[in-house]
Amino acid sequence: MKVLVLGTSHAATLRRAFPAIAAAYPGLSLCFWGLPSAAFAKAAVGADGQLRPDPEDAISRRKAAEWNGQDSIDLAPFDRILLVGLRYGLRPILQMMRSLQPLEWGRRRGALGVSKGFLQAAIRADIKASLRGQNSRTPFDARFVALPAPYPATIVLEPGELYQPVTRAVAGQKSAADLMEIYEAELARAHAAVGISFVPQPRETIAQPWLSLPDHLEDAARDARHMNADYGLIAFDAIASHCPDLSGQRLQPPARPGGFATA
Amino acid sequence: MAGSPYDGLEPRAFWRASVAGRGPGRLRGLYDPRFAIERTTRVMTAGSCFAQHVHRALKDRGYSVIEAEPAPEGVDPAVASRYFYGSFSARYGNVYTARQFRQLLEEAAGSHTPAHLIWTRDGQFFDALRPNADPDGYGSKAAVLAARADHLNAVREAAAQAQVVVFTLGLTETWEDRSSGTVYPSAPGVIADPPAGADIGFVNLGHDAVVEDVRAALGHLRALSPGIKMLLTVSPVPLTATASGAHVLVASTASKAILRAAVATLMAEDDGIDYFPSYEIITNPAARSVFYAANLRDPSPKGVSVVMGQFFSAHEGAQASETPVAQPTPKVQSEDEDNAVICEEMLNDPTARREAQ
Which of B224, B240, B266, B321 shows the smallest number of beta carbons within 10 Å? Predict the structure, then answer.
């Protein structure tokens, strides 16, 4: 069974986990193809069925060759395509969540009181637009399953270069868990609407709403978002748990409590 | 033989020259403003769904349109528009009747407490006085009340700033709580349901009632903004449905005639009131209905453009032209491309309501 891990720099997390994934799923033939998020957002499938970076962007073309050994990839041969690392406009969505407050949850200083329905609709529109763009560049079919970029790790709450004030503001709200539930529900809904599966970030890697545990960071001194090989295997297992054709390939269930990581 | 009083009148006094001999959109001299509206004039807009076109056109043209409840930054414009952010000077939704406008201003002034403010549907709670402003309602009664308090603050803010209010009269038919007189823009069961025991029935406002309601509304506005002027229009959008028992065309004609007559009465008595003939521009026989969309109800973009072109030419001294005024209408979530504005009155038609669900 041929599986393509496709996506942004977060796809590299699964690539790091390749030895572990290959050992756990020996029946799978894994292939990886990724680009930095800005370049991936401009990569598109052409008339020849090849996914390639923006031909006008020399840096993207160079990155594609450096990262993947080839500057394009044919999506046709794969039985499964794991679309990894999209953020679905999360930054502006977090800014909306900071500036708007559903009145059902009471008032919040400095935030405009709105209905929960309005906030949901605004989030839905942004996610839909993001997914529509991706669908136009890599036309979706039933082979696709999506796993988002992980939430930043808790170290972004601390002063320093990695500090993220908007994430901190939203994660610090009393309703942070409700907001994340709305966001992920809208992600699932949007993916279902285009006929593909959505796998949320495995719960066991989340420290608190909107924040990942720092345990799996690849380089906590420099980067609060990119994860290591351990996370890669957990993430792959999470995807597999949503896809019987993948989970059936595992030699034995994951050793973690509860077996497959699930949302 | 002595000359007739009609001799020597300007061409616009004669039907053949000024209507029958002109093509759609080529009528001239329909509107001589009583007062100037400049780009710096602070304008408050309210009214039926047609007023959304007026609001957008003024805003897009660079007029100082008041928005006390603007679209929140970063929100998709179509979503904001669907929830009536930035559609009028405050998020009152469509104010179809003069009674509704008067009641809103009285509530904002603290002299009216609406009865049965909160209606329900599927466990959600709706502001019965603007039920379509949050089409999914709120999760609690407290949230409805908090939102209403914010909204009334915005209404006061908008009115206090305004130098001109543009109000589009839409309907005479409305729904009233028998015991308190509170009117609602939507009938029970269309968007939500009133509480058990509420006695809400149909009322069709007559000429005198409309005149009195506009007088009272303007009185409240003048209390907040002395010297404010009022520009009235009559919506060219016919009724979707009537509860009067008459044929909908007959009922619609009666409704528009009453509104138009009320405007004439008001203009005769108050120099601070003017009328802009959007109704005539869309419905006149020379237009041959070309300014309506396929449903023969919604004005087409071209129709709106011609209407606003006449408005701008009158206030800016430019010749009205057939060139459409730019209409960067945000797309709304409705699948019906005919509906460029949000108009819950169309939900009075059960067929339309089923299609919207």
Answer: B321
